Amino acid sequence: MVGNNLKPQAKTIEFWFDFGSNYSYLTTMRIEQAASSLGVTVLWRPFLLGPIFKTFGWETSPFVLQKAKGEYVWKDMARECQKYGLAWKQPTNFPRASVLPLRVALSGADESWVAEFCRQVMTTNFVDDQDVDSTDVIRSILDRMGLPSEQILAAALSDKNKLALRHQTEAAQAKGIFGAPTFFVGYEMYWGNDRLDDALQYASSNNG
Amino acid sequence: MVGNNLKPQAKTIEFWFDFGSNYSYLTTMRIEQAASSLGVTVLWRPFLLGPIFKTFGWETSPFVLQKAKGEYVWKDMARECQKYGLAWKQPTNFPRASVLPLRVALSGADESWVAEFCRQVMTTNFVDDQDVDSTDVIRSILDRMGLPSEQILAAALSDKNKLALRHQTEAAQAKGIFGAPTFFVGYEMYWGNDRLDDALQYASSNNG
Questions:
Q1: What ipTM does this complex have?
Q2: What is the pLDDT of residues A4-39, one digit of tens each?
Q3: Residue A127 falls inside a structural domain
Q4: Which of A118, A148, A202, B118 is least buried, going by the fewest C-beta atoms within 10 A?
């Protein structure tokens, strides 16, 4: 029978992220492999963190607003990248605007290329130290991946998809998201790359 | 020869904490055992987090000021305590004032009883859900531990020790501390219970 109660549910984890977020970089680079090894599927949930920060009265990242925390974060990032074996260069522009790549990632969230696209964008920001909210940069990433860049950009820039990113960001706020990365496994929320393994363990054990 | 350059330096970690800090609770309960298993000695560094928050323009904990983050933190604490096998009750009063137990912990920071005293105070706050900034409560903890409570309280409440806690808090700020728990291994700073194991590994490898 199809659709009966005994049908196993897929083990999934929602990964809410913004390309401007440095801790989302750590997760983006490692989540697919970590999830796959536990039989968990990643649901990519790009959203805009800036409007959520604005609801707290913040015009930019707390890592910019709080000087001591900001200075610490760059040391922490260097150590974390070393721990995970990831390349790292502190961005000269932080937090970088990311609305265009977020629109592309949202438009392609269910496509097979989304994970690699996200890794490429993150690497462009946090390793190559290049701005990512640029049509040329994003087209170049899509081209390198052998994808139909003009078609993907047109879909990303459609009114429907622009509205979808606004709705995604409102959904993030409604879910209680206050930073990135954030994970959901069912109704359980986990904040921060430091909680990825706990969230994956829960997703893996939560086998429907 | 005593004091020559070949004398091995002790492997140490500085543990900066406030009894009102819930993530400091997690660390307080597990640091001594974790450090000891790696041959690392804990240097207890009680300080007042409130005056540091005030320098950011915050009148209380960010877990109170940011509603979404606050709601998340209590779920995270319940999961973290389960992970570490620690008892937990969400405090009905948060963040609790803690100046008296901090004065006692600072006055006794080099005494053999400091670790157990700190665990008792944290348990009183985060398991028994009792206020800890009370002479009766602190005296009772010291008495239960078989310590000369009146003598310890008198030392804690001396002008010299009160001033020492103010200086300790200023030192925390000068070191760039912006939250608790924070660890120092030499000049390397680590923030958060999530970084305790990394800090201990570094302390352990840093064998002078």
A1: 0.90
A2: 454 456 899 999 999 999 999 999 999 999 999 999
A3: yes
A4: A148
Q: Does residue A177 belong to the interface with chain B, where contact is any CB pair within 8 Å?
A: yes
Whether the CA torsion A131, A136, A142, A144 is positive or negative: it is negative
Report DSSP state, residue A148.
-
Is B36 an active-site residue? no
User: Tokens for A202?
Assistant: 């829960």
User: Which residues of chain A neighbour B190 with C-beta distances below 8 Å?
Assistant: 76
Structural domain containing residue B26: 13-205
Residue B3 pLDDT > 50:
no
Query: Token pair for residue A38?
Result: 């536990």
Q: Is the alpha carbon torsion for A141, A146, A149, A152 positive or negative?
A: negative
A22: number of CA atoms within 13 Å, CB side?
27
Length of chain A (residues): 208
Task: Tell whether B74 lies on the interface with A, counting CB pairs under 8 A.
Answer: no
Q: For A45, list phi and psi in degrees, rounded to 5.
A: -125, 70
Of B5, B2, B15, B7, nearest to B200 (Cα)? Answer: B15
- CA dist B161 and A202 (Å) reads 47
Residue whose C-alpha is closest to residue B125's, from B136, B116, B137: B137
Task: Give a yes or no: residue A3 inside a domain.
Answer: no
| B1 within domain boundaries | no
Does A144 reach chain B within 8 Å, measured CB to CB?
A: no
Write the burial class of residue B130 (CB in 10 Å: 0-12 exposed, 13-18 middle, 19+ buried).
Answer: middle
Specify whether the CB–CB gap between B111 and B46 falls below 8 A: no
Q: Please report which confidence band the pLDDT of residue A65 belongs to, taking 50, 70 and 90 as the band edges.
A: confident
- Which structure tokens are listed for A166? 């606004």
Chain position carrying tokens 């879910």: A175
Domain count, chain B: 1
Q: Which 8-state DSSP code applies to residue A44? A: E
- When pLDDT is cut at 50, 70 and 90, the band that residue B10 belongs to is confident
Q: What does the pLDDT read at residue A10?
A: 80
Closest among B22, B9, B34, B50 to B192, alpha carbons compared: B22
How far apart, in whole angstroms, are the C-alpha atoms of residue A171 and residue A102?
15
Query: Given an 8 Å threshold on Cβ–Cβ distance, is B178 in contact with A69?
Result: yes
Domain of B198, CATH number, reads: 3.40.30.10
Give me the DSSP letters along B85-142. T------SSSSPP-HHHHHHHHHTTTSTTHHHHHHHHHHHHHTS---SS-HHHHHHHH
